[in-house]
Amino acid sequence: SKIRVYELAKLLGKSNKELLDILIDLGVDVKSHMSSIDNDIAQLVEESLRGASGTEGPGKKEEERSVIKTDSYEVSKGSTVKAVAQLIGISPAEAVKCLISAGLMVPADSPVDEKSLKVLQDAYNVVLTMACEDDAENEGADGTCTVIKRPRFHGDHMEPRPPIVTVMGHVDHGKTTLLDFIRKTNITAREAGGITQHIGASTVMHEGKEIVFLDTPGHEAFTSMRARGAQATDIAILVVAADDGVMPQTREAINHAKAAGVPIIVAINKVDKPAAKPDRVRQQLSDVGLAPEEWGGNTIMVEVSAKSGQGMPQLLEMILLVAEIEELKADPTVKPRGVVVEAKLDKGKGPVATVLVQEGTLCKGDILLFDSACGKIRAMIDSEGKMIDCAGPSTPVEILGLATVPQPGEVFTSVENERIARDALSSREQDLRNAQQGGPRKLSLEDLYSQLKEGDIPQLNLLLKCDVQGSSEALAASLEKMATNEVGINIVHRGVGRIAESDVMLASASNAVIIGFNVRPDANAKKVAESEGVQVRLYTIIYDAIDDVKAALEGMLKPTI
Ligand code: GDP
């Protein structure tokens, strides 16, 4: 007769954190939301809450996700001071007066220029962005523009945001089927028959809460984004087929998620199949360090069938639970920034990029600066194919209007004007050229010692690939033993077989050195290692590998050619 903390929290309508605080106040020994407590303690909590609610009045209201207030209006190109005054909600006379006091003589009927727009914005503490149908703003006065009014960025307004989820797992274990099922049944279509667009990410609804799924399953996409500097994922769903069990890519996915510090929820899939052995999967996962919570571990596992939909609501509920525990928050009132999920050159539309807003509110007309691209947002389309004017945190949107195509994983910020964006971009390109001349920028065993001394890296990250399981285990054990008080040794991943591109990307994202024992990189991996500056060291004798790492830790390793 025990109950988990998170189950009780749900029953009592409290957040996990609130309940944990209450339990600790009561002197109960609990570690996390996964801890089990006795039923009589649960009862005690319930009673104390009932008592408290009498004295404290209505309980604390659950924080709600309020969308930042934005207004948009259609105006003709070259809109007048009068029109802008209306937007702000002041009289034309007041606007003219305000401009005069700033030394600008602009009659109410004449078009606003940038200068007067800025004066009005500052005086009335709003931000006005103008986006026109075709961006040739200086052509005649035909056509319409949308002017978006939003509060000035002020910050200090953290709000819960929906979790962003990536689905991972071995090939054929059902990642695509699972994503399709979730998208088909839970899409946030406000009107029936809404068309779902494949923009690279989709927002689905469960119990009135949003969850964002990245559409490209697999740890390769996940890690290549990370190697470019962006972490877009909050939670990883690890799909394991119950009739097949833990396979090489399952282990890889686990290590990729772990290296990124992303919590894992396991979906034990295909339980509709007669050959399904879910408990065998639980056992295998325990053996690789993911112990199921029902066995006293910390990993949530849900039995599902992506085909029939069995277990899907529970899976979505667990995603929301983990999201709550992670306390995912963002501020919609700061300058927008985010990350590219997908991008391509469309024949008709030009460069199109799907981005995920991570902070702030992105609006049509904003000028964005990416690592390798820039441009003004001409139009925004959400995952239901609807044109929208603004998008807050954790919203995936497709944007049109960029000058060039950015890469997935690039981050963006909004800047004041296009000149700033272009200048920043060209100085970045210069930096990049300089850096490339300086050779690889990632870690190598030779410069490990100097980096350790400078305190740049607290530990040596290694990725091991071996020809057979036995040598991989032996090598890992010997290497891990070499950790000293000053330097830890962390094996981000070890596997059997050729060194592949995804190994290199993981090493790049984790600043790790790859050690290959009796294996070589394939052609692709070789190329990527060069461009990413990842060091790959190949050995045929275990002791050589161990000696090199030892020498590197002591700063005694001679550079190889
Ligand atoms: P992916 O490679 O991980 O994306 O796997 P897919 O989603 O393409 O699925 C591989 C195969 O498994 C397909 O033939 C699916 O129809 C099948 N499949 C996926 N999920 C289930 C399930 O829950 N039950 C059954 N019986 N088959 C499934």
Automatic annotation (TrEMBL):
The keyword Translocase does not apply. The keyword GTP-binding applies. Keywords: Cytoplasm, GTP-binding, Initiation factor, Nucleotide-binding, Protein biosynthesis. Residues 160-329 form the Tr-type G domain. Residues 163-311 are annotated as: G-domain. Belongs to the TRAFAC class translation factor GTPase superfamily. Classic translation factor GTPase family. IF-2 subfamily. One of the essential components for the initiation of protein synthesis. Protects formylmethionyl-tRNA from spontaneous hydrolysis and promotes its binding to the 30S ribosomal subunits. Also involved in the hydrolysis of GTP during the formation of the 70S ribosomal complex. This is Translation initiation factor IF-2. It comes from Aminivibrio pyruvatiphilus.
